[in-house]
Amino acid sequence: MTMPWTDEEVRVMDMYLWLDYSIECIWLHYMNAYQGKYDIEYEDEIVVLRMMELVYDLETKIIDLIDDYQLTFSMIDAYKEMNDVSSWPARFR
User: Using H for helix, E for strand and C for coil, what is the string for the chain?
Assistant: First the structure.
């Protein structure tokens, strides 16, 4: 089966999927560890701040990939379906 994308587009979509997966993992950890807690220690505040900085950096990388390579969500969805990665955590399902 031939792919309708160039090798570079495939590499970029793989990068997008891993960035999105990483963001999802960070959010899940945040929700499990801190959701609903109103009184956290200073060290935990630092951890949360670092997590949010990382999420922001990863989201910026996703936006850059989309802009630089003219990716569309329909391309990414088709790629996920073609490679059976639809079970990956994704916030945009």
Answer: CCCCCCHHHHHHHHHHHHHHHHHHHHHHHHHHHHCCCCCCCHHHHHHHHHHHHHHHHHHHHHHHHHHHHCCCHHHHHHHHHHCCCCCCCCCCC
